[in-house]
């Protein structure tokens, strides 16, 4: 039997939550990297299992920490992502650390604020800026959103090593088809927030984007302005909002066992950013976004909390394990594809990210 | 003039940069020399104290004895036995 590991990034450190074999009891470890904001925490098991944490602090700035013993000890990477002095950019946060494709086990990507993409080709020892993205022709007109000017979503195409998508809040979706040499905006059909003065293809506020691993032309995004689907790799998008109480929200996940099944958490837009009327609910689509239905059995109905973009995840079990963490520090989970929810017996700091891994 | 040993106090959040030591000792003839030795010995501190352009991060405080080095025009000040350097975070507001 396997155990489930949940990796939680919070405003005051990282936490690891490990289940028993039946996923009935959960054991909390932490805070790890105590006192630091942990924006993302990922287990990379392509070679030696390694935890990567995107860490930051208002005073001391961002860096990447790693653990090779499942969180017992941590080490700050001496050469974390950093802009050159000549770039004129400032590294404010590292929002995400994303392992590359299975066939390139030493490759990792990092999405940062000010918006940019970094790559490591030696397992995180050294990082270099993908200058073709941060040097995009539209760059001078990129404007930050409420959360900053952040590149947060990074999706390498599992079927095509030359293709990758990134999402930048308040700017939009970009795609490369030539291994990162050039990038094109891919926002046609998405409702625009505010166009640039000369660049009309920016000003699209993607909050989270997911990829159908069985058909990488199929993408979905939770955007500031709605929920959208693309059937052509982002060349065009269509709204998929039937059944939603609001179209604003942050996280979006896709089931690893049924790629027609998606989960989002609608929030009241956009000055409020909490569940509408306090009714906390996950919305599920089982028809690739054609329709959405609420799932709130077991969830509190007087919960004025937010769920941030990286704070929902799924495990790879057949029964469908789904987990999300709130701005109030609670974690809710379902072991039956969202039909019923339970509350973990922990109160944590504001939760930035959740990820799941199965330990054999 | 021989280098003078100077004690440096490390804030809790940066202890992982100094192997858990709350106080480390560096040597230098001047304040700048001591800071150079500090970063040479404990290079992980650099990214937390200084930004991409080498400027002291806005909310980092480094005190040389009772002096905030941000207000000193020149760090080539000779150090003396018993001097100390303190790293602090400046957090305003409630």
Unreliable sequence segments of chain A = none
User: Averaged pLDDT of chain B, please?
Assistant: 93
Helix content, binned percent of chain B: 10-25%
The biggest chain-chain interface is:
A-B, 20 and 20 residues
Structural class of chain A: mainly beta
Which percent range describes the beta-strand content of chain B? 25-35%
Q: According to CATH, what is the topology of the domain at 246-360 in chain A?
A: Neuraminidase
Biggest β-sheet description of chain B: 5 strands, mixed
Could you tell me the strand content of chain A as a percent range?
Answer: 35-45%
Order of secondary-structure elements of chain A: EEEEEEEEEEEHEEEEEEEEEEEEEEEEE
* Arrangement of strands in the largest sheet of chain A: 3-2-1-28
The CATH class of chain B turns out to be Alpha Beta
Tally of separate helices of chain B: 2
Distance between the termini of chain A: 7 Å
CATH architecture of chain B: Roll
Task: Give a summary of the structure in a few sentences.
The complex is a heterodimer of chains A (360) and B (94). With 360 residues, chain A is mainly β. Chain A has one helix and 28 strands.
